[in-house]
Amino acid sequence: MTVQTAPVADRPAGAAGESPEDLVARLARDGRAAQRVLARLTDAQKAEALRAVAGVLRAAEPAILEANARDVAAGEAKGLTGAMLDRLRLDPARLAGMAGAVEQVASLPDPVGEVIAESERPNGLKLSRVRIPIGLIGIIYESRPNVTADAAALCLRSGNAVLLRGGSEALHSNRAIAAAFAEGLESAGLPAAAIQLMPTQDRAAVGAMLTAVGLIDMIVPRGGKSLVARVQADARVPVLAHLDGICHTYIHAAADPEMARGVALNAKMRRTGICGAMETLLIDTQFPESASVVAGLLDAGCELRGDSRARSLDPRILPASDADWDTEYLDSVLSVAVVDGLDAALEHIAAHSSHHTDAIVTGDPAAAERFLNEVDSAIVMVNASSQFADGGEFGLGAEIGIATGRLHARGPVALEGLTTYKWLVRGSGQTRP
To answer: Aldehyde dehydrogenase domain: from which residue to which, for each copy (predicted)?
Structure first.
C-alpha cells in the first residue's frame, strides 16, 4: 500500500536550545500534518497498516523484551511496588497479546464516515451528522508500556494522530514499541509522525502539552491519582479521564454463595493493580455465607480492613479507617463492610464510588435491575467480576482509557470515543427568509 503523504518537517527531536513549548509545537505540527493524511485513508488502508505494525511487533520481540528487562531492573532498583512492576513487565505472552490486540483493532469496523443521523427539513435541506476523527490526541501515561501500543492502534484506526508521553519507568520499552510502530507505518507508506513518542522526560514538556491549545485537540491521562489530578487542574486542552478506580462489589442477600465467592475472589485478586480491581466489598447482612467469602480472600493473601460487623466474620480482618472507604489500593488490600440491604449498599456506593465500575451479585432480578438503574457509574455489572471493565473484554479491541465523566464518552474509550462529528448540509439553492 502506498499513499501520497503530506510533507512533514524532518528535524531532530529535542534540538539543542529548543524549549519544551517549541518542542511540543513542532511535534504537534508534524502530527497534524500526518493526521491530514490519515483522514484521507480508506478503511482497508488503515487496517493494512495496523496488520503491518503487528507483524513488526512480533519480529521485534527480542529487542522489546530486552528493553523491558532494562526498565524492570531499574524499577526494582528504585523500589517500585509489586503492583507497579506487574504493570511494567512484559513477557512473550503479553507481547503476543499486544500484537494480537493491534490486529483485533484492525479488524474492527471503521467508525469514520458513519452516518449518525439524517433528516430533511421542510425547505428541502438535507442534513446528516457524520463521524470524523478528533485530530491530534495527546496521551500522558505512566508505567504500562502496553498503553503505547493500545493508544497508537486505536488512534490510527480512528484516523487520529497521537503524541505519546510515557513515564520514565517504561522509557526503554516505550521507545522500542514506538520504533516498531514507526517501522510498520513506513512499510505501509504512511508518515511515521502519525504516532510520535515524546523524546524527553522533562516534566515541563507535559505542561506544554496541557496548554497546547489549537495544536493538541484532546488529552487523555492514564496513570495514578496525582498524574490525573495534575492534568485535570492544569490543562487548557479538553481532557478525557478518570481519577480513581474505587470499584465496589455488593453481595446481595439472594446471591448464590459459590458465585459470590468466585466473583469476589476474581474481582480483587486476579490482578490487583488494574483500575477495574475491586477495592470495597459490601456484604448483605442477610447473606448466609459471608464468612466463607471473606475467608477465601484472606486465604488467598488479601489483607482485609473492615467495619465492626465485618470484623466479626473473621478475626484476621483489621479495623478500617474512614479513609479506607475512599482508597484505591491497587494492591492485595480490600475494605469490607456489612450493609443492611440494597438501600444501604446503594447509599454506600453513592457516597464512596469513583463512578468507574460497580457490581452486584444476586439471584433476584428485581434487585439486579434496580442496581443497574440507580448506580451512577460508567460501568455497572450484575453477577460478573469488575475485572471485566476493559475495552478488550467489551469487544472494543483495546481501550485508550476508562472515562468516568459525563461528557463525550463514558466507560471504555475505544474507536467511537475517539471520534467527533460534523454536520453536512446539502441544498438546492435555498436562501433563508
So the answer is: 6-286
Residues 217-226: what's their mean pLDDT? 88
Q: Quote the CA–CA distance of 368 and 372 in Å, as a whole number.
A: 6
Mark whether 192 and 80 lie in a shared domain: yes
Domain-located, residue 164: yes
Total of domains in the chain = 2
The verdict on 56 and 177 lying in the same domain is yes
Per-residue confidence at 407, pLDDT binned at 50, 70, 90?
confident
Q: Would residue 105 count as lying in a domain?
A: yes
Dist. CA 227–CA 62, nearest whole Å: 31
Q: Are 206 and 167 in contact (CB under 8 A)?
A: no
Residue range 140-156, pLDDT digits in tens: 998 889 999 999 999 99
Whose cell is 472515562? That residue is 403
Confidence of residue 286 (pLDDT cuts 50, 70, 90): very high
User: Do both 155 and 253 map to the same domain?
Assistant: no
Q: Are residues 200 and 257 in the same domain?
A: no
Considering the domain architecture, whether residues 229 and 87 belong to the same structural domain is answered as yes
CB count, 10 Å around CB of 213? 11
Give the distance between the most distant pair of CA atoms in the chain: 80
Interior/surface letters 371-405, b for 16+ CB within 10 angstroms, e for the rest: beeebebbbbbebbbbbbbbbbeeebbbbbbbbbe
Q: Between vectors from CA 325 to CA 322 and to CA 330, what angle results, nearest 5°?
A: 125
